[in-house]
């Protein structure tokens, strides 16, 4: 990969991570826990796993 491709890939993943983290952290608590089985406080960990593997 060239430097530009690597940089573009990392920036794309970082944007996806931030967007996913924001969405998960701002879910209503009752919906997140009861329907999805997740805690909004774990948004960073969940987003990282979803985007970076």
Task: Provide a brief overview of the structure.
This protein is mainly α and 53 residues long.
Strand fraction equals under 5%
Mass-distribution shape:
elongated
Distance between the ends: 20 Å
Give the rounded overall mean pLDDT.
94
- Please tally the helical runs, counting DSSP H or I stretches of 4 or more residues: 3
Secondary-structure element pattern, one letter each:
HHH
Low-pLDDT stretches are none
Radius of gyration: 14 Å
The total number of structural domains is: 1
The assigned structural class equals mainly alpha
Instruction: Provide the helix percentage.
Output: over 70%
DSSP, total strands: 0
Major sheet size, sense and barrel closure = none
Key traits:
about 55 residues
List the helices and strands and how they pair.
Layout: H1 3-25, H2 29-36, H3 43-52
Explain what the structure shows:
With 53 residues, the chain is an all-alpha fold. The protein has one domain. 77% of the residues lie in helices and 0% in strands. It is built from three helices and no strands. The protein starts with a helix and ends with a helix. The mean pLDDT is 94.
